[in-house]
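Journal club prep, notes for RB
We'll compare a predicted complex against what the paper describes. Inputs for the GLP case:
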Amino acid sequence: MNEAEGKSARLRRHLLSLLRDKLAPHDRLPTERSLAEEFSASRLTVRLVLDQLELEGRVYRVQGSGTFASEPRIAKSVELTSFSEDMRARGLRPGSLAVTEERIPAGAEVGYALGISPAAEVLHVRRVRTADGEPICLEHSYLPSALVPGELGEALRGSLYEELAGHGLAPRRAEQTIRATVLDPADARELRVPAFSPAFLVQRTAYDARGRAVERALSLYRADRYSYELTIYRDCPSYRD
Ligand code: GLP
């Protein structure tokens, strides 16, 4: 390694540790000139190191104002939320109507999703979910009886996820698909919209911290009242060290 390469490497290590330990997102980095002095390097060497960090998405430059720390990398881009949390985040009061629970065999689809025999028993919870009292979602949750042996009763008027957490079954990760559909007349009546109104069908399998499938759920959301809002991130492939 020649002298300039050695200086670049040292400068890069220094800047990486500043970015990791000292600087918050959008904080300004030391100026090119002060870095050049501190590392007895040329301005060109400093600029090349900063160019590389910019390319990796770790810093950004603002013309005439300097170089700044970027937003951190986000490993988890979409949060696993419950209906109640989702509604509260939108400033709405969550609720449930027409709550029923019954024990049934899992059947092929639910059994497969939960990784249990189709003949194994599940607790089927059916709820019309409301936002500020208005029905917006029809939700079917299937919980393995082996994990949830007792009835949930009144707890189902509140948050199922909170109830599961109380049983040591808090969902930590989920596989989810969302697709467009229409509401058949009976479901549409419960959601107080015309038959065959558009809806989102959200299918989710949720797993607890031990990796056990704790819930398979089918939720039908009224498309006129619900939208999916995601914050999405673009990771930079060379953004690793
Ligand atoms: C979302 C999920 C369901 C889950 C529900 C729990 O709607 N799609 O799978 O059952 O949240 O919500 P809560 O804890 O409010 O009952």
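Talking point for the session: The beta strands are 59-62, 66-69, 94-105, 121-131, 134-144, 173-182, 198-207, 213-222.
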